[in-house]
Design a protein that fits this description.
This protein is mostly helical and 76 residues long. 54% of the residues lie in helices and 0% in strands.
Length: 76
Amino acid sequence: MYERPETPYQRLFESEQLEEEQKEKLREIYKSLNMVKLREEIERLTKELYHMQERNGKDNFSDRNMIQPVSYFDNI
């Protein structure tokens, strides 16, 4: 009845939109990804943005427009 769930990466590979050379390049990129390092980088950059905003001064500093340093993936 329904199609099986797939990631965009999987759907792209099953389509005929890419040439084999393009698929191979994407495979190499995908294999090189390290989810732990990506998570750490996202958290580091989020904290950096928070501190930049904090240093920008108290006039623009409110909870409403604040980027909070949060570990988004801790509950996964």
